[in-house]
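Q: What does the assembly look like in three dimensions?
Context provided by user:
Components: two
Sequences:
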Amino acid sequence: GQQLNQSPQSMFIQEGEDVSMNCTSSSIFNTWLWYKQDPGEGPVLLIALYKAGELTSNGRLTAQFGITRKDSFLNISASIPSDVGIYFCAGLKNTGNQFYFGTGTSLTVIP
Amino acid sequence: DAGVIQSPRHEVTEMGQEVTLRCKPISGHNSLFWYRQTMMRGLELLIYFNNNVPIDDSGMPEDRFSAKMPNASFSTLKIQPSEPRDSAVYFCASSPRDRGRHSYEQYFGPGTRLTVT
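A: Here is the predicted structure of the complete assembly.
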């Protein structure tokens, strides 16, 4: 079952605004991945994080691996209409090969 | 580079029929994952393979579901007999297991939308 709590569940923002979303868990994870899913498509990998405290950017996207290893954050700067979609976090524990996925944050950008 | 390929993209079938979903992972990737996505339950891992060997099938709902990976470039997920509650989007993903820390990055296919009436 789901072990990751993702918030907010949905966001409605104006074009140009910055966006922040996070993923939390009661468990420790060793790897965090952030994905974006467009309607009718599969999730696309945006950023991968491997070390506590790590801050990684991909264009206007920045993600951080929380120090406690129980959370991760994704920020999008200067949002544009094509940022619309559902953003998922996924965490990998120390053992096994199974990622646990968050429930997703639905982002709507109003032009 | 070609990504993960899935077929069919859409499948509509009647209850009781057999359904076979197909996946071709990214060349060189040696881990393959089958997921199911629904509004109610989100993304659920059904089964995954390492080097064509099933490692964990604990997510497979019941005996009606089976998955095979006869070689490194092909996998199938079969539902027999299908039921309306199997309606969902089924994703296949692959990862490059032997590339250090990048080994855990999973790349998803476009999915198969299954509707069982």
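Follow-up: The first strand of chain B starts at residue 5 and ends at 7.
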